[in-house]
């Protein structure tokens, strides 16, 4: 039986994860992408390691569990976030990246039946398609999806595959671990993975100011610790394709937060897209969405 608090997990996750787009945009005014990611992961480890020695939570008993935690951490932190930020670096628009990342639930639904044994019925497929259409409407109402060149699309596809494989891997091999243990191992793998990109691509200069400090604190505490923890908990407790379909709501909610926080106006057609995406997510995440 799933813990009762997981009932509220989708809403909390969506708010924290979606807010990261606006906050990251603020932070990137003061630091380069890979440097920001390394700083973010380093701060998480600076919190997790002392807590580990104070609380002394159990470590994974099997080598395989260590490996699975590290693989999921590497796929999310290095591959997903790393390649998304590399796409931004070569000039891909934020709306283009968000739109491509919205295909993750579709890939999960395609692979899940063979990978995890979860059936994906007609109702869920209809919900996935409706959610994708709604997300595309929102993104296109806010920014033009311009060509990004082959390297840009390569980075986006790699990031998309990173999050997709991480979701499927966690569902099949993930076990319940103490949050401190899980974060320490996962972010350790992500930090090691992102270092080569930072050392070869960035100047590592940071313009320190209070706005940057607040943004990093949000990315560390809300995005890196709480949101990722909720995502993995939801994947373990439910159907991976249903949980992944929540990602359809991230671009619309992120657009709403950008409107409030950054003054980026969403046209009326964009609000229509939000409603369509919400309907799609509802259909795809219903418990009897298998048939």
UniProtKB/TrEMBL annotation:
Xref: Pfam families: EamA
Q: How does it sit in the membrane?
A: Multi-pass membrane protein
**What keywords sit in the KW lines?**
Membrane, Transmembrane, Transmembrane helix
Location in the cell: Membrane
| SUPFAM superfamilies assigned | Multidrug resistance efflux transporter EmrE
Among InterPro entries, the record links this protein to: AA-Vitamin_Transporters, EamA_dom, EmrE-like
Please indicate which superkingdom the organism of origin belongs to: Bacteria
| Gene Ontology, cellular component aspect | membrane
| EamA domain location | 11-139, 151-285
Can you tell me where the transmembrane regions are? 34-54, 66-88, 94-113, 125-142, 148-169, 181-200, 212-235, 242-262, 268-285
PANTHER family for the chain? EAMA DOMAIN-CONTAINING PROTEIN, INNER MEMBRANE TRANSPORTER
Q: Which family does it belong to?
A: Belongs to the EamA transporter family.
Q: What is this protein called?
A: Multidrug DMT transporter permease
Q: What is the lineage of its organism?
A: Bacteria, Pseudomonadati, Pseudomonadota, Alphaproteobacteria, Rhodobacterales
